[in-house]
Amino acid sequence: MRLTLLLTLIAGFATPAFAQDPGMPAPIAHSAEHDHLKAMAGKWKVAMTMHAPDGSTMKSEGTHVASLTMDGLGLIFDHQSPMGPGKMIGHGFLTWIPGKQKFQSIWMDNMSHNGMATGWATWDAAKKTMTEIMTGPGPDGTDMTFTIITVAASPDTHTSTFMMKGPDGKEFPMMEMVYTRQKG
């Protein structure tokens, strides 16, 4: 019974009438914003510096692998780096949303005890800068918002600066990540 229903549904969706249905949206067309995603794909070495509000810093190095997906419409990335007493392992996704004229992202890692962060970003091609506002649960579970400013210095180097509000309510650079493309 289920197999018959499945085959009937498949046959119905495969008809030329369904393929020409004017109510069906057309696939997203590639744009200059998708070219930016393509430029971010690859294997990267990452030098990280974390800054505490008291001025202390912690440095580590990690890896970041970004791969195009959905025929070049999205970018999936995996990040690993030592952090504190363990290793931070993270996974994210970035894509261009034509209807909003913005990039949308998600991020999750093994140190995010309270859930996933989501964000919206704009790309300034003249300045080679992406500005993203991300929101996600902080260590205490309440939502926190931070800004990520990424500057593409060259096709093989870019720097992301994570800005957040400190205990005094003033924004400070919480983390800087310098990405260097790995050859070969």
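(the above was protein one; protein two follows)
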Amino acid sequence: MVHVHDPRVRWSVRAAQVMRIAAAAAEWHAPTVDLLAMLGAPASRRDATQRVVIVRAASGRDIALLASGPIDVADVDPSDVLALPAALAASAPHVSAIIVARDGSLSLLLEPSTVTFAEDTVLGEELCPSRS
């Protein structure tokens, strides 16, 4: 797993989804996604130390997740990945599980494939004839 120690909340993504990590200001000029802000946390203040974790979504699209804070890569025992309660899972599709670290701290396992963009095609849209 790739773990980001964001000052707002620690979050993680599966390492297999990560394409690369880049400096947000210097190396990445495309739009970034602040998934924690999408979950209701205050937006991260932009600064020169931020990086982006570029992940490959199931659609094949690369998504740059804004990462504020130190980043590390560590194995996680499958028994330390806890399923979300049903009510929380339904209301927070960007979070797929909670990870309990060896030190007892918690991390949200984020699911970048749930991120959609305005230009994304709605499933079946290309099959529907226009009524105009």
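Reviewer note on protein two: The two ends are 48 Å apart (CA to CA).
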